[in-house]
Amino acid sequence: MSTLAITPGRLCGTLPAVSSKSAAHRAFICAALSDAPTSFAPFVTNADIDATMACLRALGAVIRGDADSGCTLIPGKPAGLPQLDCGESGSTLRFLLPVAAVLGGASFTGHGRLPQRQVTPILDALRAHGTRVSGDSLPLTVTGCPAPGDYHLPGNASSQYFSGLLFALPLLPGDSRIHVAGTLSSEGYIDLTRDTLSRFGVITHRTEDGFFIPGNQHYTPPTGVAIEGDWSGAAFYLAAGAISGPVTVTGLRPDSAQRDRGIAELLAAFGAEVQKSGDAVTVSPGALTGQTIDVDQIPDLFPILGILACAAVGETRLTGAARLRDKESDRIASTAAMIRALGGQAEEFPDELRIHGTGRLAGGTVDGAGDHRIVMSAAIASLICDAPVQIDGAQAVTKSYPGFFTDFQNLGGITHGITLW
Description:
The chain is α+β, with helices and mostly antiparallel strands. Helix content is about 30%, strand content about 25%. It has helices spanning about 20-30, 45-60, 90-100, 120-125, 160-170, 185-200, 230-245, 265-270, 300-310, 330-340, 370-380, 405-410; strands at about 5, 15, 40, 60-65, 70-75, 85, 105-110, 130-135, 140-145, 150-155, 175-180, 205, 210-215, 245-250, 275, 280-285, 290-295, 315-320, 345-350, 350-360, 365, 390, 415.
């Protein structure tokens, strides 16, 4: 475990957004299912994307080049029953379970908290259509192509189950429907999947109670793919702009399907000054006041919104958060623990966190909980602390943003300790 100490200070300046992890997963999977090679412009990789690329290689893809110079993915066929190591990436696992089943099957493993994370809904949906599954948690094996037809998933389940089916079902010999029971959570991530599918020539339709997916489709790659900037990663530094700044992040699509682009409007609602110009967003400090925010459609923003709440004056309620208990950490509990460790006040409820903000925190030692978003949020929290912040397990940032602390230092942040990632 690596420990990093941060001296309270100020961040200001400009930095480019890193590549979107969400967009990259989807684009590489579509490329692997295509009928021709796909060329990718240079992008910023991370542990989760590396896991997806390794799994696609095991499924027969050849990837020439690298992230720094750009690469070409050449689709292929798996040999035998491939072994897919998903690392700690829930996206990789949940996206590829249906895909691997359609391609003939695979064995799956994972590390960290991934074997404990929920996959039963997607496994049950595959079983109901003829796929054989060896168990309900990792390690497990899926064999047997599922049949086209009517698939049923609860709306409050992970959006990654829906995306996995949307990747796989177009390849089946008949039409399929996905029926959603209840309200669909995190639909923005499904919109991002459908947007990527359409770029590869695959058609899906939103219906009154879910999705209609025509069968017998073919993935056709576009001419060159550039991975868009990551609003989720940018949110940490845009929040820094609101409490320290000003900070500008460039390379952010204003019309992105990423729902986390809503961080700009949320910062303005808290009281920060927000300016948009093309693909750049600049945030400057303001008098921040507590807010009530439903995070059901923006779950990845939860930890940094918790820190913004501490920087604000008054009560902030983060509601609609029940699914956050099944992330890299139990994010309701780990966000509350982070705030309390730094001297703040947070009340934890089954699907909600209430933060009593005073505008300042004391400082202290934070357990990163093996969660990249907790680590990055704790670093930003240092900007309103009276004493240094120590983060245990700071290497967790490699999951989505390996260069996070380099960017932190480039904006003026002061860190101490050896970085081993």
